[in-house]
Design a protein that fits this description.
The protein is 66% helix and 1% strand. With 353 residues, it is an all-alpha fold.
Length: 353
């Protein structure tokens, strides 16, 4: 297959799917689970470098793809119903469940905070807000510039954690850029020259992250703190965040250029990343709170980090298998026919004025 071959579609599923995008979802989901598994070990140099490299681009990557797949959103009845069934309901189920589990083990949060996502729920909340505001970003004359200015400006003020609005706004440029990308943009990333340069870039940055310790990198890469909280001046904060946006885009495009375009076993797994994202947090919380696994692993250093990476890959693949999709689809993608009015399929008749 040539580097600029058309993006093949997957024949499975009720809608036509692009194999390339499902492949991309698969690989970025591995990074998500690995990153979350390493979070408690970032005090160790062997984990910090891998964590920094992953967090520099894995959510920009995921968000840009989410923006691209939302480019046809116009807010019609079917799309609103889908937002409720596949975003709002899963958000409520997962966020409340994780908060209850955490409170069982630690006593926190003392009160359930359904509108204040504590961990993985933030991405679902952000997707809801991004999707609902999509028509705005389609209508603006300079949407990308506007989104970047909003992201940079959000660090100047202290924003409460309501529906993860701080992260939602800070990471907004990646969604808006994805929203305005076209199929041709993805195809241009597939040239052999770009793919070779991308491999060198990502490998070089990976090595750099292992060799150089970046102060406060973890806090910056969470995209949720104001510049004051990060103990920096407004000018420095603006420069650092602008650099992180540029770095996130550069690494995202590099990773996208390396994603296989043909259908393979990763394609079908990539169709089920939704379930992996929603479920992997429960496994990590259980192992951490019930068995204190990460405390027990820390003395083993780099060996523990390597073992966790392998375990994270195995866990992610397991949660993307068909049995988990079949079991959890009724919960995470409910029909909710009882909640909505029937969709009027009859043609609209214009009344002459």
């Amino acid at each position: 297959m040539s580097a600029l071959a058309p993006l093949p579609v997957s024949p499975s599923g009720p809608k036509e799917r692009v194999a390339y995008l499902d492949n991309a979802r698969y690989w970025v989901m591995l990074l998500v689970v690995i990153g979350h598994c390493l979070t408690e070990l970032v005090v160790m140099d062997s984990a910090r470098g891998v964590y920094t490299w992953i967090y520099a681009f894995h959510m920009p990557f995921f968000i840009l793809i989410s923006g691209y797949t939302a480019r046809h959103y116009v807010g019609d009845v079917r799309q609103i119903r889908r937002i409720v069934s596949t975003l709002v309901v899963p958000y409520l189920l997962v966020e409340l469940s994780l908060q209850l589990i955490t409170r069982h083990y630690t006593g926190e949060p003392a009160q359930l905070m359904v509108l204040s996502p504590q961990w993985i729920g933030w991405f679902m909340a952000a997707l809801i807000l991004w999707r609902l505001t999509t028509p705005i970003w389609r209508a603006l004359r300079y949407p990308i510039t506007t989104s970047i200015l909003i992201s940079l400006g959000s660090g100047l003020i202290d924003i409460p954690n309501v529906l993860a609005i701080h992260k939602t706004v800070a990471l907004l440029p990646f969604y808006v850029i994805g929203l305005h990308m076209t199929r041709e943009h993805f195809l241009r990333l597939g040239t052999m020259r770009i793919r070779a340069a991308s491999a060198v870039l990502l490998a070089g940055l990976f090595v750099l992250c292992q060799l150089v310790r970046f102060p406060d990198a973890k806090e910056w890469l969470l995209w949720k703190h104001s510049y004051v909280d990060l103990d920096t001046t407004f000018a420095e904060g603006l420069l650092v965040r602008a650099g992180l946006i540029a770095l996130g885009l550069l690494m995202t495009f590099a990773a996208l250029s390396l994603v296989p375009r043909g259908r393979s076993w990763t394609t079908s797994f990539g169709e089920r990343t939704f379930y992996c994202y929603l479920l992997h947090g429960f496994v990590i919380i259980w192992l951490d709170r019930h068995y204190h696994l990460w405390d027990k692993l820390e003395p083993y250093g780099a060996t523990a980090v390597a073992g966790l990476i392998v375990a994270a890959i195995l866990l992610a693949n397991l949660l993307m298998t068909p049995p988990f999709a079949r079991v959890f689809r009724p919960l995470f993608e409910p029909k909710l026919t009882w909640m909505f009015r029937p969709i009027d399929e009859s043609p609209q008749v214009k009344i002459p004025v």
